[in-house]
Amino acid sequence: MFRTLPLLAAAVLTSGGLHPRLARAQDPKLPATLGGFDRKDPRFDALIPKDAKIEVLAGGFKWTEGPVWDKKANALLFTDIPNNRVVKWSAKDGVSDFLKPSGYTGSEPFTGYEPGANGLTFDKDGRLILCQHGDRRVSRLGKDGKSFETLADKYMGKRLNSPNDLVFAKNGDLYFTDPPYGLPGQMKDPKKELDFQGVYRLTPKGELTLLTKEMTRPNGIGLSPDEKTLYVANSDPDKAIWMAFPIGTDGNISGPGKQIHDATEAVRAKKPGLPDGLKVDQKGNVFATGPDGVFVFAPDHTYLGKIVIGDRNANCGWGDDGTVLYICANDKLVRVKTATKGLGF
Fold first, then answer.
1. pLDDT tens-digit profile of 323-336?
2. What is residue 43's three-state secondary structure?
3. Which residue segments constitute the domains of the chain, with CATH numbers given?
4. Per residue in 232-264, pLDDT tens?
5. What is the pTM of this model?
6. Number of separate helices (H) and strands (E) present in the chain
7. CB 195 within 8 A of CB 170
8. Rounded to the nearest 5 degrees, what angle is found at the Cα of 235, between the Cα atoms of 88 and 249?
9. Which of 97, 103, 133, 318 lies 20 to 30 A from 40 at CA?
10. Phi and psi, residue 160, nearest 5°
């Protein structure tokens, strides 16, 4: 999503020697590493080694989002939303365009800031699924690598706002959020048809269910390993929180949600960014982008610490063998090598 909070000064960045594997991807003008770690609980050390570094892989984008690991290509895909493209990064070949346009395919000029795709994932068949802001839908990339197949674009006959992030359950159910950030006028856009921002479940048969509309700006989304808990970030500066909702055997929310952390004070203190994308590891720890970095929560929702980026952060995703966390940090792509492993690896 688009942010209007100020960036921290470049002084938070530190220079250093460049790892040979990054030589093709690293711009000489970019620092080799940045940020640091705020360790609140000993359990953080079991996830992020004491000698871990935040490595800068590439920069020069407008607003990066949606990182997902392509196991077949051994590469990371992520979106550069304002530039309406999906970017591919690999240690071997560096950065290249993978898909353009990615989220807006209309013929008329797009007047907003975020026309492109946002969240990305792969289905069980290895097909790329995209949250397309400009086209206001969840879609699947065609086998030709250029066209799109609509999976969901309306609820009760009304157009969705702009699907933002998504996660698959093991049975093929797709959970996604629908805030207004892809609409040129956002909440006040005259073409906004729904009077709420929803969290949805889409079944493999194409049945779309509204799970909750209580969140003002639902954004990042993820499932616990046992799929009994749905995590949703709320990117509202007046209520910058993360919620956990119980999921019943039917795949729907089965009770009231629980707030697991409130970062509103950090937002008011001008820390850059808001609760945004999130991912879960195999043990149930939650890695959630938010003000100034990536917040890490234990399965019991204890706040363990933060990967401090010193910038706005949009999303994160597991890659390589599942132990590497890639972070879309404003106009850059960075990574941290962890001691845990993400779901799906």
1. 999 999 999 999 99
2. helix
3. 10-337 (2.120.10.30)
4. 999 999 999 999 999 999 999 999 999 999 999
5. 0.92
6. 2, 29
7. no
8. 85
9. 318
10. -65, 160
